[in-house]
Amino acid sequence: MENLPELSAPIFYRAIHFDLCKLESLVSSTKEARRTASLPSDSEEYKFWITQPRLPQDPPLTYSYCASKFYIRQCYRVYYDLMMECLESGQYDLLTLCGSPGSGKSMFYLYTFHRYRYEHPSATIVTAAFHDNCTMSTCRVYEPGKGGVRCDKIPTIEGAMYLYDGPPPRGPRKSKMICFSGPVPKWIVPQRMNPRHTCLWFPPWTLDELFDVNDLCEIGLSRETISERFDLFGGCARYTLATDEGFIDLGCDHLLRQTISIFSFSHFLDCFLQEQIDDFLHLVPTIDYRFPFVNKSPQRRVCSRAIDARICNRIWKTVDTNILVERLRRDTQVQLFLTNS
User: Fold this and answer.
1) CA distances from 173 to 8, 160, 170, 306 (A)
2) Which domain holds residue 305?
3) Considering the domain boundaries, does residue 241 fall inside one?
4) Which of 5, 192, 210, 293 has the fewest beta carbons closer than 10 A?
5) Of 120, 133, 194, whose CA–CA distance to 163 is shortest?
């Protein structure tokens, strides 16, 4: 593994701060203002567990997850309420829950499936998993009160709820859909022309959340190990909480290869401005007071201090350090990195 340079004062990295309480307040106010339909009087509210067990009837995932349970992030409940508000508002039929790689979108997909099925027992749910090239790997249809039935292709069922793990080639007709995906241009870009679609940007993990996952899901890592990995991978649970050292080494090599081409500030901006998000950049939702609150373009952050130091070290090879720092502080294109959220 390559030794990374150290930098006491990072330039492109900032600790991620996402004000979930603010978003929760905005969503709650919207629910009250819209007076959305409540659960039937004879129904119990969905239980908000800290962890949720994996079940045989779980819908298909793009990437395998073999643990017996998964952690319920605090943001899941808030984002679930926001998604339901969007679908009930009459403005949107298609949603993309979009976030950085390893931010827990697939587990949120499972949470959404079970909670929606609990709260809408008469609904038909079509689930499918897709690769990043928008090709389908698996599809299952869940009729009310029944287990999933595997399908070779996605059926058209008017009025069904469609839940997708990964980006589909197209959205369903005359039905509602939630897609849990990274910012894949092949899916995201065409949807910009669709007024019935919006992206809801999803936050990366915090270090404290990763500590909680390790404890509650009994992963068995030390806090020192998690902190060291967080300093490299940032809020990407896929690598920070992995137990296979070979997988972690591959992730590290992949992360470092993404910065090989960065030898100048202009090369860095090319990565920063491109549609596809590399693993060394994290997406942080920008909260807006207008509904649906997190659909504005997200802030982009270098994922960790170590990667910040690597990028700066490569740029400094071609320009005087003092000149670079002063230019960065004056350049409006990177003010995003130089101010705290």
Assistant:
1) 53, 10, 9, 45
2) 222-285+296-338
3) yes
4) 192
5) 120
Rounded distance between C-alpha atoms, residue 11 and residue 58, angstroms: 43
Same-domain check for residues 191 and 54: yes
Does a structural domain hold residue 155?
yes
> CATH no. for residue 77?
3.40.50
* Entry pTM: 0.89
- Spell out, as residue ranges, where the chain has pLDDT lower than 70: 1-9, 35-44, 317-341
pLDDT of the residue at 289: 94
The structural domain count of the chain equals: 2
For position 296, what pLDDT does the model report?
93
As a whole number of angstroms, the distance between CA 80 and CA 52 comes to 15
Residue 325 falls within a domain, yes or no?
yes
Q: Are residues 98 and 231 in the same domain?
A: no
pLDDT value of position 232: 94
pLDDT (tens digit, 9 = 90+) per residue, 57-84?
899 999 988 788 999 999 999 999 999 9
